[in-house]
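Give me the fold.
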Amino acid sequence: MKRILYILIIPIIVLVGCNGCNKATNAAGNAAQQSDKQDAVQIVFAAANEDTTVVHTDGVECQISVVLYYAMGGAVADSVNAAILNCGLIPKNCLGSCKAEDMPNRANDIAKHYVKSFLENDLDLPYDNPQLFFDAYSKMFFGRDSIICYEYGYDSFMGGVRNNYQMVSLNFDLKTGKLIKLKDFIKPEAEGKITELIVADVIKQFDDCTSLQDLQDNHLIFSEFDPYVPENFVIGKDFVEFIYQHEEIAPYAVGFVTAKIPYKDLEGCLR
């Protein structure tokens, strides 16, 4: 088994609370000069990468790659990392310390988990010499106000008849490190209106649909249950993106279903 581990410090410094502004800089020196301000919270994001090629007993190879962004910078960073590890897509046996210095070990644990799973399972190969892989990725970007958005997901084909996709989005208040959940973000009484906006946006994505009934009949979207607001969402700069997991509301072939709702349409709906 060939294994490569490297840790990349991403030059993204986040300062929150400095005269009410958020700043990202590529110059760590500039950030260091500003970090002595008492009202500033500093978070540095880094990425731990694991790349492994593992060979099954029958000679079939599988490429396993894990890229895990994590936060550095004290208690706020620890809070962010704890939410990342508990996002629901990371195997329970890979959970552990959320301290920045321990997060590369979590990436290693994830890679080892899928190596073990691959080696222990009987392979169900649909054809000769398939390209098998497990690719876990993460990324972060700035959202609205003092919010940073984080995405973790994976794409894998380790046998069977099709790829497996999953993805989760997290939104953090950088002033506190708190994970912003759906109930923290939208008003309960606005759920019906937001659901209607989501359905309307999804309808516009299909040329053969002008109604919810068309979505259900033509693409089997929301065919098994009534529409709802998903827990997976991104608080972007100009809009909120609501994301349904792969096969959550539609067949495999449809893929992820998303809806982008501008803030002007959400007036009175958000906390």
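The domain at 183-266 is CATH 3.90.640.20 (Actin; Chain A, domain 4).
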